[in-house]
Write a structure and sequence with these properties.
heterodimer; A: 380 residues; alpha+beta; Gyrase A, domain 2; Alpha-Beta Plaits; Elongation Factor Tu (Ef-tu), domain 3; six-stranded mixed β-sheet; six-stranded antiparallel beta barrel; 8 helices; globular; B: 526 residues; alpha/beta; FAD/NAD(P)-binding domain; 2 domains; seven-stranded mixed β-sheet; 16 helices
C-alpha cells in the first residue's frame, strides 16, 4: 500500500504496489474510492438558495431537487477560489462538497439571510463507486432507485438499512456514483458494496488510479491545474473561470454574487484550458536514438511543464499542469493552459531523455479525452 | 456483386482484418469475406453458453503490435487490454509458486525453492527483455525473402538490429535459436520447479518437448510481448479476445472496407497464372484486382488454388511445412472459483495465468505420450479466469475459466478422426489433472466446452489444429516462412497474396502479418 495525507487524514494512493490494476478496475469493472476527506456542508433554510447564489458564479435557481451541479466560486476580483459540487436535497436544502473548507466563507456571506450552515465534514463519510459495473453493484446492494438516475441526478435511498444520498457523479469520467453515509456507518456501507461487488470484479481503489482517470476525463484538480486565488502570491497564479474553460457556468445577469462586477468587465479569457496529445512517434524516436524503449510515466504527473511555440524553446505560449499515459486510449496526454491568442494546432513540450532536454510536438485537442457513452446512458 | 474491388481478403481473422484496415486506410476498395458468422478467426469471443462469453481459442494478448494500435486507432474502436499481474504455478506443497509484477514479492516466492534462483531471476528477466526487444524489431519489419539483391536492404536492417547487441547477449541469442528450452534455462536456474513454467513457454503450439532443440526460440517468442511499454506483459481483452478482432473490423469499416460474414470461399479463380477473383461455396463469384488470403499457406494454395496451378517445388515445400497441432482447449463455465489446495481461497494468485507444470520431467513425460500418438494423461495446462477482471464475460458471481491444454496431438495413433471418440476422455483428463491441484473443481462446473485439435481445424480452419498456422521452429521462420521462395506475402500466383500467421513473423495475436502484408501490397502501387 502507498499512503498520502489528504486534508489531515491518511488516504491510500494505491492498495497494491502499482495502481495499474485499480485503474483498470475503474475502466473495466468498478473501483471503490474513499473520498471522506472532502469538506461537506449542508445549507438549509428559506434563504439557502439566495446564499448559494451569492457565492457561486453559477445560477442555482435552475437546479432542481435531486440534481447535482458542478460549481466554482470566486473572490471579489473574479478569481477562482475553489470548485465543488452542490446537491439539492430538498426545496431549501443543499449539500455542498469541496476540496477546501467553505463553512466560514459561507457564513461570512450569510448575514441577514435565514439559513443554517452545518459543517458535516466529520459526521459524514464519502464513498465513490466508479466504473461501468457501478450501477449493477449498487442495484445488487439494494439501491434499486439509482436505476432511474440520469447523469448528475441524485436519490435518497437506503443501502443495508442505512439511509443516504447517492448521486450519479464522480471524478473519473465514467459511469459512477458518489454517496455520503454517516461516518459511523461508512464501514458497513464499504463492506456491503465490496460484498455486492465481488461478482462484478470490484476493487478498492486509491488516489493514483483516480488521478489518471480524472486527467483522461479532462477534470481539473485544484492546486494542480489551477490554484485557490486566496493562497497564491502573484496575479499570474490566479485564474478566472473563463481561463479554465468554465465560462459556460458564469451567469452574470442576475442578483449580485461575489466577483460579478469583475467578471462582467473581463469576459474575454486570457488563457485556454486545453488537452494535449504528446506525439508518440517523436517521443519513441528520441528514446530509440539512445537505445532505449520509450519510457512512459509510471503514474500521473502534476508539475508545471512549459510549452513553446518552437523547437528552439524561445517563445513560451503556455504550460502543462498534469499529464499521464492513458492505458485505455493508448496516448500520452496532458492538461494545459495556453495563451488565448495562440492559434496553432501544436505546441512543443519539453521531454528529458537520459538527462538531456529535447522537445516534441503536442497536438492541442479537447481536454475531454475519455468520454464513453455509458457515462450518460440510461442504466439497463 | 458487380462492384469492382481492389482487394478481396479471404478470412476475417485478426490478421485479415488488420490487413483490410490498412488497405482501406490507403483508399483501396476492400471486401473481407468470413466463412463463419463471427469475426476473428481464432481470436474470437463467443457466448457459447447463455451469459458466458468464452475466448474460445486464443485467450491472452501481449504480442499485438503497438504500432498497429496507434496507426489504426484501435483504442477508439474498442481495443481494451487489461494486463495480468501474476503467474501462478500450483504445486503439491503448501504454497505453490507465484511470480508477480512486484520483483521483491517474486524473489521471496522463488527463494522458498532456491535462493540461487531467486537472485538470478531478475537477471534472467532482464536478459530476456533485452533479447525480446531485439526480436521484436525483427517481427516489426518484413523478413528478407532470400539472398537476392532486392533483399539487400532488409538484410542490412537485420544486421543493424544485431549489431548493437553485446557479445554475451549475442551468445544468449544464438543459444536461444539453437537449444532446447531446458538446455537454455539450465545454466540460469537450479530449481526444476521454477524452470518448468518458463520452459513451458517454449513448447506452446509446437509438437516438441521442453528438451527438444529449437524450443528455446518459442520461449523468446513469448517474451516479445508488450503492453504500454512493459515488455513480457500479458493481458485479457475486455469482452474476450474477439474484441481485439472486432476493434480491427471497426477500424477497417471506418475506412470504408466492407465485411461480410457467412461467406465461405470455395476457390480462387486463376487464369494464366493470375488470380482474378474468387468463387463462394454458394456459387457467387467476386472479381478483384488482388486477392489476399488470411488462411494458412496450405489451405490457400493447395485447397483454394489447387495443385495443378502450382510449381512442383512449391507443392513440395508446402508438403514439408510442419503444422502438427499439439494442443486443445477446454473452456469452463463455473459457478464458483477453483480452490487450490496449496493456496486456498480467493486471492490475487487467481487473477493471472495458472500453469499446471509442476516440474520439468512432468512436461517431458507429457510429450513422451504425445510422441506415440496419445494425448498426455497429465498434460501441461495454462488456465486463466478472465471473469475475475472483466465482469462482462460471465453472469455476476460466476466465472469462465479457459484452459489451454498440451499435448493433444492432432495425429492420434488411430488417426485424427479418432478424436471424435476421445473428446470426452480428453476433457475428463483435463479435469482430473486440475482436480489434483484444485479438488472440487468439478462441483463448480455448469458447462464445459472441449476443443480437440480436430475441432480447431474444423471450426477455425487451423490446419492440423496448429494454433500458429504452422510451427514456429527456426526452419519455418523469416525467409523460410512458410517456405523458401514463398516469403514476402506473395505466392507463385500473380495477384494472390497471403497475410495470415503462416507468413512472417508468425503466430500469436500480433497483427504483424496482416500489417506487413498490406504494406507490401501497397508498395506495389495497386
Amino acid at each position: 500500500m502507498d499512503w498520502t495525507r489528504w486534508a489531515g487524514h491518511y488516504a491510500p494512493r494505491s492498495y497494491q504496489l502499482q495502481h495499474e490494476n485499480e485503474y483498470y478496475s475503474i475502466r473495466t469493472a468498478a473501483g471503490l474510492i474513499d473520498i471522506s476527506p472532502l469538506f461537506k456542508v449542508r445549507i438549509t433554510g428559506p434563504d439557502s438558495l439566495a446564499l448559494l447564489n451569492r457565492i457561486f458564479v453559477r445560477d442555482l435557481s435552475r437546479l432542481k431537487e435531486g440534481r447535482v451541479a458542478y460549481v466554482v466560486w470566486c473572490d471579489a476580483e473574479g478569481f477562482v477560489l475553489g470548485d465543488g459540487t452542490v446537491l439539492r436535497e430538498g426545496p431549501d436544502t443543499y449539500f455542498f462538497t469541496s476540496e477546501d473548507p467553505t463553512a466560514a466563507w459561507l457564513n461570512r456571506h450569510a448575514s441577514g439571510l435565514n439559513v443554517v450552515i452545518t459543517d458535516e465534514t466529520e459526521t459524514l463519510a464519502g464513498l465513490a463507486l466508479q466504473g461501468p459495473s457501478s450501477a449493477k453493484i449498487l442495484i445488487h446492494a439494494g439501491a434499486e432507485s439509482i436505476r432511474e438516475l440520469k447523469y448528475f441526478g441524485a436519490t435518497y435511498t437506503s443501502v443495508n438499512g442505512i439511509e443516504l444520498w447517492i448521486s450519479r457523479s464522480g471524478y473519473t469520467g465514467d459511469l459512477g456514483y458518489e454517496m455520503w453515509p454517516p461516518a459511523d456507518r461508512a464501514l458497513d456501507i464499504w463492506d456491503t458494496l465490496m460484498e455486492a461487488g465481488s461478482g462484478f470484479a470490484l476493487r478498492a481503489t486509491g488516489l493514483k488510479a483516480l488521478d489518471v482517470c480524472r486527467i483522461e476525463a479532462g477534470l481539473l484538480n485544484k492546486g494542480v491545474d489551477f490554484h485557490n486565488a486566496s493562497r497564491v502570491l502573484i496575479r499570474e497564479q490566479k485564474s478566472m473561470p473563463y481561463d479554465l474553460g468554465l465560462g459556460w457556468m458564469v451567469h452574470l445577469d442576475r442578483e449580485p454574487f461575489v466577483g460579478q462586477s469583475a467578471l462582467r468587465k473581463l469576459q474575454q479569457p486570457e488563457w485556454n484550458m486545453v488537452g494535449l496529445e504528446i506525439d508518440w512517434s517523436q517521443t519513441r524516436d528520441l528514446y530509440e536514438s539512445r537505445g532505449l524503449p520509450p519510457m512512459l510515466p509510471a503514474e500521473a504527473w502534476s508539475l508545471s511543464a512549459p510549452l513553446y511555440r518552437d523547437h528552439a524553446r524561445q517563445c513560451q505560449v503556455g504550460y502543462a499542469t498534469s499529464g499521464t499515459w492513458s492505458p485505455v486510449l493508448k496516448k500520452y496526454i496532458a492538461l494545459a493552459t495556453i495563451k488565448k491568442t495562440y492559434s496553432s494546432e501544436t505546441v512543443q513540450i519539453e521531454l528529458t531523455v537520459e538527462h538531456s532536454r529535447h522537445s516534441v510536438d503536442a497536438r492541442i485537442v479537447s481536454p475531454r479525452f475519455y468520454d464513453p457513452p455509458h457515462k450518460r446512458a440510461p442504466v439497463e | 456483386m458487380s462492384v469492382q474491388w481492389d482487394v478481396v481478403v479471404i478470412g476475417g481473422g485478426h490478421n485479415g482484418l488488420v490487413c483490410a484496415a490498412y488497405l482501406a486506410r490507403a483508399g483501396r476498395k476492400v471486401l473481407v469475406l468470413e466463412r463463419r458468422s463471427v469475426l476473428g478467426g481464432a481470436a474470437v469471443s463467443e457466448e457459447v453458453f447463455p451469459g458466458f462469453t468464452f475466448s474460445v481459442a486464443s485467450y491472452v494478448i501481449s504480442l499485438f503490435r503497438p504500432r498497429i494500435i496507434r496507426e489504426l486507432e484501435l483504442a477508439k474502436h474498442g481495443y481494451h487490454v487489461i494486463p495480468m499481474d501474476c503467474a501462478f504455478q500450483p504445486l503439491h506443497d503448501d504454497h505453490g509458486l507465484a511470480r508477480w509484477g512486484d520483483p521483491n514479492r517474486t524473489r521471496l516466492e522463488i527463494s522458498r525453492y532456491s535462493h540461487h534462483d531467486a537472485e538470478n531471476y531478475p537477471k534472467f528477466k532482464h536478459t530476456m527483455t533485452r533479447l525480446g526487444r531485439i526480436a521484436a524489431q525483427v517481427i516489426d519489419r518484413p523478413a528478407p525473402t532470400g539472398f537476392r539483391p532486392q533483399d539487400l536492404h532488409t538484410l542490412i536492417d537485420l544486421f543493424r538490429t544485431v549489431r548493437g547487441v553485446e557479445k554475451h547477449e549475442l551468445q544468449q541469442l544464438i543459444r536461444l535459436l539453437t537449444l532446447s528450452a531446458v538446455d537454455f534455462l539450465d545454466p540460469w536456474f537450479e530449481s526444476e520447479i521454477l524452470k518448468a513454467p518458463l520452459a513451458a513457454s517454449g513448447i506452446i503450439g509446437t509438437f516438441q518437448g521442453v528438451r527438444s532443440p529449437g524450443t528455446a526460440y518459442v520461449l523468446l517468442h513469448h517474451y516479445m510481448g508488450e503492453i504500454d511499454g512493459a515488455f513480457r506483459s500479458w493481458g485479457f481483452a475486455r469482452g474476450g479476445t474477439g474484441s481485439v478482432s472486432t476493434a480491427c473490423a471497426r477500424a477497417a469499416e471506418a475506412h470504408g472496407a466492407v465485411i461480410r460474414t457467412n461467406c465461405e470461399v470455395d476457390k480462387v479463380l486463376v487464369s494464366n497464372n493470375r488470380a482474378t477473383g474468387i468463387v463462394l461455396t454458394n456459387g457467387d463469384s467476386v472479381t478483384a484486382r488482388r486477392i489476399v488470403s488470411n488462411l494458412d499457406p496450405r489451405r490457400t494454395l493447395m485447397e483454394l488454388v489447387g495443385e495443378p496451378h502450382l510449381p512442383e517445388t512449391v507443392v513440395d515445400s508446402l508438403g514439408r511445412f510442419k503444422y502438427r497441432g499439439s494442443s486443445g482447449k477446454v473452456n469452463l463455465a463455473l459457478d464458483g472459483l477453483p480452490d487450490f489446495a496449496c493456496r486456498p481461497g480467493v486471492g490475487d494468485h487467481l487473477y493471472g495465468d495458472i500453469a499446471i507444470a509442476p516440474d520439468v520431467d512432468y512436461l517431458e513425460r507429457a510429450f513422451d505420450e504425445a510422441k506415440y500418438g496419445s494425448f498426455s494423461s497429465r498434460p501441461f495446462i495454462n488456465a486463466v479466469i478472465p471473469s475475475l477482471t472483466d465482469p462482462t464475460v460471465a453472469p455476476p458471481g460466476k466465472h469462465v475459466m479457459s484452459c489451454f491444454v498440451q499435448y493433444a496431438p492432432y495425429e492420434l495413433a488411430e488417426g485424427p478422426e479418432a478424436w471424435e471418440s476421445q473428446r470426452e476422455a480428453f476433457g475428463n483428463t483435463v479435469l482430473d489433472t486440475l482436480e489434483e491441484f484444485a479438488p472440487g473443481l468439478r462441483n463448480h462446473i455448469e458447462h464445459m466446452q472441449v476443443l480437440t485439435p480436430l475441432d480447431l481445424e474444423r471450426d477455425f480452419g487451423l490446419t492440423e489444429g496448429n494454433i500458429f498456422h504452422g510451427e514456429l521452429s527456426l526452419n519455418q521462420l523469416l525467409f523460410q516462412r512458410p517456405a523458401w521462395g514463398l516469403a514476402g506475402y506473395r505466392t507463385p500466383i500473380r495477384n494472390l497474396w497471403m497475410c495470415g500467421s503462416g507468413t512472417h513473423p508468425g503466430g500469436g495475436v500480433m497483427g504483424a502479418s496482416g500489417e506487413l502484408a498490406a504494406k507490401a501490397l501497397l508498395r506495389k502501387k495497386i
